[in-house]
Each structure stands twice: as C-alpha cells, then as structure tokens.
Amino acid sequence: MSFWGVVGIIALVVVVLLLINHKAVLNMFGALRAQVGKAGRAVGGADPLANYQQGIDDAADSVKRAKQGMTRAVALISSVERQVNSGKQEKARLEARIQRALGEENQAKAQEYAAQLADCETHLAANEDQLNHHKEAYDGFVADVKRQQEKVATYQREASGLGIQLEMSKANREFNEFRQSFTVNTGALNGLAAQREAVMQQIDQNNAYGKVEKDVGGGSTYEEDDAEIDRKIKADEILKRFQPQKPAAPANS
After folding, report:
1. Spatial contact of 52 and 162, defined as CB atoms under 8 Å apart
2. What is the distance of C-alpha 8 from the center of its chain?
3. 131 with 77: CB under 8 angstroms?
4. Alpha helices of the chain — where are they, by DSSP H?
5. From first to last of its 253 residues, what are the pLDDT tens digits of the chain?
6. Radius of gyration (Cα) for the chain, nearest Å?
7. How far is Cα 50 from Cα 43, in angstroms, rounded to an integer?
C-alpha cells in the first residue's frame, strides 16, 4: 500500500470517530497534546521559565474548560427552573380545581385533585431542593473560577517580570564570565612586561655600541693623520731627487 493510501485510511478513521463521538476524539487529542507537552518540558528542563510559562498556560486552559463546564451547569439550572415554575403553575391550577370542586360540593373530584396536588407538591419540593443545590454549586464554581483567573493573571504578570529578571541575570552572568576571563588575560599581559624590558635592554645595548664609538672613537684617527704626513714627507724627499739642482746665485760685490 502506498503512503498516501495509508494517510487516507487514517483520515477516514479520524472522520468516522469524530462522527461517532467527537468529544472522545477531542479528549484523545488533548491527552496526546499533554503528553507531547510533558515530553517537551522534560527535554527543555534547562529552561525553567519556559516550564513556568507552560504551567501558567495549562492553568489558563483549565480555567477555560471550567467555564465551558459552567455553561452546561447554567443550562441544567435553567432546565430545573422551568420544572419548578411548571410545578408551581400546576400547583396553582390544582388548588383552584380543589376549591371549585368543593364549591360544587363534589367531594370525589376534590379528593382526586387533592391527591394530584400532593404528588405535585412532592415533585415541586424535590425540584426546588435540586435547584437550590445546583445554584449553590454554580455559585461555588463562579467563586473558584474567579480565584483561578486572578491567580493566572497574577502568575502571568509575575512571569513577565521573571522573564526580565532572568534576562538580566543572564546578562550579569555573561558580564561576570567576561570579567573573569579579562582578569586572566590581564595577568597574561602583565607577563609581557618583563619580555618588553628584555627587548628594550637589547635595543639599549645595540645603541650603546654606536654611542661609545661616537664619543670615544676607534683610536685610529690621529694614527692615520701621522702616517699620511710621513708619506707626504717621503714623497717630497723622493721628488727632490728628480728635480734638477738650481745654480747658486752669485754674490754681490
């Protein structure tokens, strides 16, 4: 069977179940949703705010379902009220018939109406008692739902505030983690000071050679000047050997 064939069969079964008992199907899907939500919360246990918000959403859904249940209670109360009103009307009619029968001195008829009135009063009393119980229960439901609504609203406001506080706490944690890492890096940078000093000392040492050479000199400048003078003297002496001898000037008489 193909994939779409299986999907079609599942869809047909769901439709049939909805037609047979749609409430049961809806409850089944509600239970499935609850299980999926439970599994999701178990997986996301590291996010307490999400779990808290899910609990608030579940409480809000519970209040919503309670309101839907209260509508059925109101319908039941209305039905019993109609029975009570109908019983009161029947009681009034029977009382009038009894009075008319007694006025006509029809004792048998009056006795028959009286028996019917006794049954009517019995049913009326039971319906009135049931109506009172239903109204008391409904009033209790109203009070409970109101309290639950107020709690849900309070929790929703608190969840909003907690969300802000949680984000702020995350920011504080990240800042503290950064500050700790920055402190560690600062310690590492402090260790570079000694290395920088060693580099500066090497630079000073290299510059010292040039300064000493400039200030003191290599000790060869004067030696080189003397040698040059000697060379020139020797050169002059040699040149004199190659120059002709000039005759001596005559003496004056």
Report:
1. yes
2. 39
3. yes
4. 3-43, 48-103, 107-215, 221-242
5. 566 665 566 666 565 555 565 565 566 666 566 565 655 555 555 578 788 788 888 888 888 888 888 888 888 889 999 999 999 999 999 999 999 988 988 888 889 988 998 999 999 999 999 999 988 988 988 888 888 888 888 888 887 787 777 777 777 777 677 666 655 555 665 666 777 778 878 877 877 777 666 666 555 555 556 677 877 787 777 777 776 666 655 655 4
6. 58
7. 11
**Domain ranges for the chain:** 69-156
Q: How far apart are CA 106 and CA 84, in angstroms?
A: 29
- What DSSP designation does 252 have? P
Q: Give the other-Cβ count within 10 Å of 166's Cβ.
A: 15
Residue with tokens 């029968």: 101
Distance CA 25, CA 111 (A): 56
CA distances from 137 to 7, 42, 68, 150, 189 (A): 46, 37, 15, 20, 75
Neighbours of 152 (CB within 10 A): 18
Of 135, 117, 119, 136, the residue nearest 79 (C-alpha): 135
What angle do helix axes 3-43 and 48-103 make, rounded to 10 degrees? 110
Query: 3-class SS at 55?
Result: helix
In angstroms, rounded to a whole number, what is the distance separating the alpha carbons of residues 58 and 55? 5
